[in-house]
């Protein structure tokens, strides 16, 4: 069960697909950035909508206005048009998970639901833990069902910017995500040593062997760079690389990533 087909793309272990995040805050810049990323050697676009939302003054009050939703739909429509068939991930990353948006999970869920309903994106990223190691199963269930109802796929994600959980913890998190109904389970954790990256790869290989997934497993930070390339071999299906600007520590630019992947896996893509 660790293969996922999205449009014409097959996500599985092996050479990972490259996803590039759109990180601008201003709508015009978002579109220009999207156009420029579309020319880059990548296979997936991620709209980090928290960068846009984080720049809106008094976000919760703005959410009372119809224009707020229309503006998001307009941007999504433009991104979808420019993507021209390239799969799109919609992400609202909260501050506690390293993003730019600080508001109640119910509000964030509402925005995710709008994106799913729009039919303009392929994946919705949903954060697995609400606070610390708490999972709000009721809200999570509601969001997953809502996304699936609109034929969108769910990426359940977890980020740890401080440390690398040990392999059994990593395995435990991914298994819980898969059991909740994630179409893709994603864990990005900080590697402060080679050992940390090895632990992430070890957990990835174990999960892959046990048919858990598909997964996106990322070692963040300088020490994690090699694992962003090799994790595919162990079972991770997507790696993230930067276009305009990195969206997480240790992300390399998309041209470098493509070259590293070509060298590591042989051949070319994209
Ligand atoms: O979750 C991820 C992975 C990421 O954090 C990274 O480490 O490359 C980058 C984010 O944009 C994306 O949403």
From TrEMBL:
<keyword id="KW-0704">Schiff base</keyword>
<protein>
    <recommendedName>
        <fullName>3-dehydroquinate dehydratase</fullName>
        <ecNumber>4.2.1.10</ecNumber>
    </recommendedName>
</protein>
<keyword id="KW-0028">Amino-acid biosynthesis</keyword>
<feature type="binding site">
    <location>
        <position position="228"/>
    </location>
    <ligand>
        <name>3-dehydroquinate</name>
    </ligand>
</feature>
<feature type="binding site">
    <location>
        <position position="247"/>
    </location>
    <ligand>
        <name>3-dehydroquinate</name>
    </ligand>
</feature>
<dbReference type="Pfam" id="PF01487">
    <property type="entry name" value="DHquinase_I"/>
</dbReference>
<dbReference type="InterPro" id="IPR013785">
    <property type="entry name" value="Aldolase_TIM"/>
</dbReference>
<dbReference type="InterPro" id="IPR050146">
    <property type="entry name" value="Type-I_3-dehydroquinase"/>
</dbReference>
<keyword id="KW-0057">Aromatic amino acid biosynthesis</keyword>
<dbReference type="GO" id="GO:0009073">
    <property type="term" value="P:aromatic amino acid family biosynthetic process"/>
</dbReference>
<feature type="active site" description="Proton donor/acceptor">
    <location>
        <position position="159"/>
    </location>
</feature>
<comment type="similarity">
    <text>Belongs to the type-I 3-dehydroquinase family.</text>
</comment>
<comment type="subunit">
    <text>Homodimer.</text>
</comment>
<dbReference type="GO" id="GO:0008652">
    <property type="term" value="P:amino acid biosynthetic process"/>
</dbReference>
<dbReference type="InterPro" id="IPR001381">
    <property type="entry name" value="DHquinase_I"/>
</dbReference>
<comment type="pathway">
    <text>Metabolic intermediate biosynthesis; chorismate biosynthesis; chorismate from D-erythrose 4-phosphate and phosphoenolpyruvate: step 3/7.</text>
</comment>
<feature type="binding site">
    <location>
        <position position="251"/>
    </location>
    <ligand>
        <name>3-dehydroquinate</name>
    </ligand>
</feature>
<feature type="active site" description="Schiff-base intermediate with substrate">
    <location>
        <position position="186"/>
    </location>
</feature>
<comment type="function">
    <text>Involved in the third step of the chorismate pathway, which leads to the biosynthesis of aromatic amino acids. Catalyzes the cis-dehydration of 3-dehydroquinate (DHQ) and introduces the first double bond of the aromatic ring to yield 3-dehydroshikimate.</text>
</comment>
<dbReference type="GO" id="GO:0009423">
    <property type="term" value="P:chorismate biosynthetic process"/>
</dbReference>
<keyword id="KW-0456">Lyase</keyword>
<dbReference type="GO" id="GO:0046279">
    <property type="term" value="P:3,4-dihydroxybenzoate biosynthetic process"/>
</dbReference>
<feature type="binding site">
    <location>
        <begin position="46"/>
        <end position="48"/>
    </location>
    <ligand>
        <name>3-dehydroquinate</name>
    </ligand>
</feature>
<feature type="binding site">
    <location>
        <position position="93"/>
    </location>
    <ligand>
        <name>3-dehydroquinate</name>
    </ligand>
</feature>
<dbReference type="GO" id="GO:0003855">
    <property type="term" value="F:3-dehydroquinate dehydratase activity"/>
</dbReference>
């Amino acid at each position: 069960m660790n293969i996922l087909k999205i449009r014409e793309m097959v996500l599985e272990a092996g050479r990972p697909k490259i996803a590039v995040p759109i990180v601008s805050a201003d709508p015009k810049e978002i579109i220009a950035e999207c156009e420029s990323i579309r020319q880059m050697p990548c296979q997936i676009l991620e709209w980090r909508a928290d960068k846009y939302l984080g720049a809106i003054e008094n976000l919760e009050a703005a959410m009372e206005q119809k224009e707020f939703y229309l503006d998001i739909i307009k941007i999504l429509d433009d991104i979808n048009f420019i993507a021209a068939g390239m799969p799109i991930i919609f992400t609202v990353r909260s501050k506690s998970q390293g993003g730019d948006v600080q508001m109640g999970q119910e509000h964030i869920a509402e925005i995710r639901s709008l994106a799913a309903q729009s039919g303009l994106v392929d994946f919705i990223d949903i954060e697995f833990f609400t606070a610390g190691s708490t999972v709000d199963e009721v809200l999570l269930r509601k969001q997953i069902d809502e996304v699936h109802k609109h034929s969108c796929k769910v990426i359940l994600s977890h980020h740890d910017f401080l440390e690398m959980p040990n392999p059994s913890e990593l395995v435990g998190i991914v298994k819980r995500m898969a059991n909740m109904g994630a179409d893709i389970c994603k864990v990005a954790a900080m590697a402060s040593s080679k050992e940390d990256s090895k632990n992430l790869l070890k957990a990835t290989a174990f999960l892959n062997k046990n048919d858990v997934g598909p997964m996106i497993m990322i070692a963040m930070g300088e020490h994690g760079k090699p694992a962003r390339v090799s994790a595919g071999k162990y079972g991770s299906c997507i790696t993230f690389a930067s276009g305009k600007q990195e969206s997480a520590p240790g992300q390399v630019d998309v041209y470098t990533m493509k070259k590293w992947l070509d060298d590591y896996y042989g051949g070319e893509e994209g």
